[in-house]
Amino acid sequence: MITRNLGQDGPIVSALGIGAMSFSNFYGPTSDKQVYEVLEQAITLGINHIDTANLYGKGRSETLIGTFLKAQGKQAHDFFSIATKASIRQDTDGQTVFDNSLSHLESALDASLQRLGVDCVDLFYAHRKDPNIEIEEVADNLATLVKKGKTKAIGFSEIAPFHLRRAHAVHPVAAIQSEYSLSVRAPELGILQLSEEIGATMVAFSPVGRSLLTDRPYRPDELADKDFLRSNPRFIEPNHSANIKQTDKLRALAKELAMPTVALAIGWLLARGGHVLPIPGTRSASHLAELAKGAAAPLSEDILSEIDKILPVGWAHGDRYSYAQWAGPERYS
């Protein structure tokens, strides 16, 4: 398993992590048993970074991770470097708001620590930028939680480069989280380069294109229970069929190489920089094993070149998000 530093001064972790949104029924029903099997497989494979959030299943993801860790009979850090996030909440009218105040971040982190069964996490992210608070104040709020010993490092999810630079001037930012894959190349327009410059890890979520870069992309009839994908432009016809047709070429290459398609997608991402750390989500232990093959060894330059020819920049049909789904992530390109 290839390894990476989690931030400039952070722990060495596996170059493949687990995105635990999949533990919250986001992509379909997930049983406790499935979650525990994925976590057991992660330990077997040497995958030791797990990324969750208080939002995922309204705490269910964190609770399941905490329950699993407690059952192991050892300290949590013996198994996983844990990252979690907060700042998305409902106001009194039931509307979604982004809250980066110290009071909210600290109370949310306290609740996350209790669910996880730990005293401190390795990394705590502001999940979204609060438009009512300057980024310097947000960085200082997160730094306060480091001083209090509740997190070892801070990060930002879906942040723009200009805000990242300002935040890092207040307190070292250990990690940036953005959607990044062969189908979403926007990080290459600034955030990928800046994160490397400041020594931050570029944590790539949805690295296999929400199934498009796998051997078994979701079919139209499989989207009924997946609210997010059902309204996502890339999974609405005619875009969905066009995207599957285009990625069939990647599946053909994977078959020729006797590799899982996801291994090519993960291997390509890891080649984008020594600071890139993909965190695919999965509900299947066997699928996690396929993903891990992409972090077993670097892909050759010939294979990387062929992948780029098959899926060049801009190949995907449809926007990354719908208008409603764009609420929160910072656009910078």
Task: Tell me what the structure shows.
The protein is of the alpha/beta class. The protein has a single domain, classed as Alpha-Beta Barrel (TIM Barrel), CATH 3.20.20. 37% of the residues lie in helices and 14% in strands. It contains eleven helices and twelve strands. The strands form three sheets. It has an eight-stranded parallel β-sheet. A two-stranded antiparallel sheet has the order 1-2. The protein starts with a strand and ends in a 23-residue tail after the last helix.
Strand content: 5-15%
How much is the radius of gyration in Å? 19 Å
- Tell me about the largest β-sheet: 8 strands, parallel
Q: Provide the low-confidence segments as ranges.
A: none
Order of helices and strands: EEEHEHEEEHEHEHEHEHHHEHH
- State mean pLDDT (0 to 100 scale): 93
Shape: globular
What CATH calls the topology is: TIM Barrel
What is the number of helical segments per DSSP (H or I, 4+ residues)?
11
What percent of residues adopt helix (DSSP H or I)? 25-40%
CATH class: Alpha Beta
Keywords:
333 residues, alpha/beta, TIM Barrel, 8-stranded parallel β-sheet, two-stranded antiparallel ribbon, 11 helices
What would a concise description of this structure say?
It contains eleven helices and twelve strands.
